[in-house]
Amino acid sequence: MINMTENHITRKGYQGKIVLYILLQFLQTALALLPPYCYLLFLNQVITERRFELLGFVCLLYLLVFLGKALVSVLSKILYNRIFPAMHMELKEKILEKYSRLDIDVLQKYTSGERKERLHRDTENAVLYQEKLLQLGISTVRILITTAILLYLNWILALVSFLLLPLSYYITRYIQGKSNAEYERKRQLQGHYNDFMIHNMHYWREVKTNCLETQQQQQFDDLWNDMGKAFLKAHMCWFMNRTFLAFKDVFLTKMGLYLLGGFLALKAHVTVPVLLAFMEYYAEFVNHLLSAVDILLKKGEQKESVKRIQELLKLQQPERPYEIQTFEKLELCNIDFKYTGEQELVLRDFSLDIHKGESIALKGESGCGKSTLLKLIAGYLVPARGEIRWNGYPMNLVNRPSIYAKTGFLMQEGGLFNLTVRENLLFGREDATQTQIKEACARANILDFIQGLPRGFETLIGENGIRLSGGQRQRLMIARLFLQNPEFIVFDEATSALDYQNESEILNLLLREAGEKTLLMVTHRGTSIAKCGRIIELTGNA
């Protein structure tokens, strides 16, 4: 289980591994402090004192330190791979679970791109934030240890090396604010870009039909250019900070320390071996400082991701005490609806009762509200006025999964994913056997086509089934509906891409086998309408 607190994420059962990981990091720190000591020992004892008998010991110590660092590094990496990627995956699962439990009208407050960013970028940043908090603590300890060693070796050199640290701090804080603002802008643009791409992948036919390729290409170019500029500005902030620190700490300060150290050596305040060892430790100090600064620079972006995930996980699902055990009736009472930003009502004072076992056809001109009505029934949309009742219960008090378990929706937009044929079918019934899958496909008249594919049921069909023809997509979705075997079936032009013979066969099959099932169909075809027991004609504003 993942636990989100105000500033970080922890996973129960991982605390022990995290503690072990921290201990390995400290052991790695201790081993990193030994090479400069070996260097000092070599210069003082072997070179200066000419105790050549210690050369073998020094070399052996170097070798042991190298092997120890390699071993600890491998163990740390293994432990890292068992902690943070697993935490990332579990946080993704938690977000997906939250998405699945939220009402569609709540989810629609976030764009597709925004939901994608929370699932991918924000979860990655949130776990990275936890990791970097650990690294920041470890780097702080390393900085304190190397600071103490530097002061011990020569306090004059150490104090001089620390003089520019306050300036570094304030410049870093300034650049950090700029960097965080640019990263947030980049993230927002990435969300707009994701929305644009998802929309174009879904409605590519409309784009081509209306000759919008040039307009969409221009919009793509604008988004891409804006993202590129935001990306460049964010990374320029990071580069400016790193360049400043590298120039000051690695070049100016190092050169000044060598000059000062040379002067102190002439005055016998420090020995040359100690000066050389001091510079080795100073290099370690600078590396740890740069690591801490990098973490601080990126911490703001990661912390914002944590806040966004907390906001999502804190969304409350309305309490819904009623469940649909079996479908009996659906009532739409005095429904008004209009889309956001629109002045005209799509549906006005619309009422309809649907009882178990009925077959109803909805007909009307394009734009009269047929698809809107079905989306209201599905809970995709919420009426501005009126009430929808399932089995006599207000829809806002009925558990949604119980509705979807008893109702099969085939909407115009479809619902196929960039998965295999089998995986798409299993959305209808998760535990379906191969025999049941084949039977459903045979009833939808698509089994021969699937078995004729090179990889059969393991064939990837592309986003929204783009690798299939319109009729094949519809038959695949109908097969999935047969696999689900719902009590109430809702069709929205679900057979429009089929020829008359296939359409007639499927509708006959549905009506013949329906028995106690209920059918609500939106269609323009007279042959389909004629097969239904009741016809409802919608006009503008219902």
Task: Describe the 3D structure.
The longest helix has 54 residues, at 213-266. The mean pLDDT is 82. This protein has helices at 15-48, 55-101, 104-107, 112-153, 155-162, 165-202, 204-209, 213-266, 272-313, 370-378, 400-406, 421-425, 434-443, 447-451, 470-484, 500-514, 526-530; strands at residues 2-4, 9-11, 329-337, 347-355, 359-363, 385-390, 393-394, 407-410, 488-492, 518-522, 534-537. The radius of gyration is 33 Å and the shape is elongated. The chain has 17 helices and eleven strands. Helix 1 packs antiparallel against helix 9, helix 6 (165-202) packs parallel to helix 9 (272-313) and helix 8 (213-266) runs antiparallel to helix 9. It has 542 residues and is an alpha/beta fold. 29% of the residues are buried.
In a few lines, what is going on in this structure?
It contains 17 helices and 11 strands. Helix 4 runs antiparallel to helix 6 and helix 8 (213-266) packs antiparallel against helix 9 (272-313). The longest helix is centred in the middle third of the chain and has 54 residues, at 213-266.
